[in-house]
Amino acid sequence: MIQAHAVEKRYGRTSALRPVSFEVERGKCLLVTGPNGSGKTTLLRLVAGLAAPSRGRLVVGLERAQVGYLAHEPLVYRDLTGLENLDLYGRLYRVAERRERIGMLLERFGLWDARGQRVSAYSRGMTQRLALCRALLHDPQLLVLDEPHAALDEEACDLLDRELGVLAGDRTLVVSTHDAARLAPLADHRLALA
User: Fold this and answer.
1) What pTM was computed for the model?
2) I want to staple 176 with a disulfide (CB 3.0 to 4.6 A). Which of 30, 40, 42, 77 is the partner?
3) Tens of pLDDT, residues 36-60
């Protein structure tokens, strides 16, 4: 599903990602690790189709609409409620039976009771859970997750681990993390950036 050959990203003279090569088959999980500044976020932005490589070749074998992306920023509107955010994204992605899907995700991620609150009133952990709902809403074939456990309490981390465990093998996952041990059971491939 994903093929990268000597992919790199530069902004002027600054190297944001040194050349990397890897392949990820459909239904497999690539775990991306490395210290801050190694290019993890840049690589995930490239895979998600939000940036283009400066050099090298990157092929992602599906349409962008089949990609679910979770960034450092939650990419939700703070002035809207949790429900309004998901309804907006559901309309944009033309999610069939979106109200049912939204309700199921809000319930699963413990946000049902907060669905009518503006996101500006959410804690950082609640906002991260809403961002996860947004990334999963359209049932993407490829999930690109940048530090998905960030700001989550232990209960929410366990919930996310279970959710990723269910998706693994059925969906393709590209996940960056500082906690490789937590996601090691899911990883079919590893890419350590320096």
Assistant:
1) 0.95
2) 40
3) 999 999 999 999 999 999 999 999 9
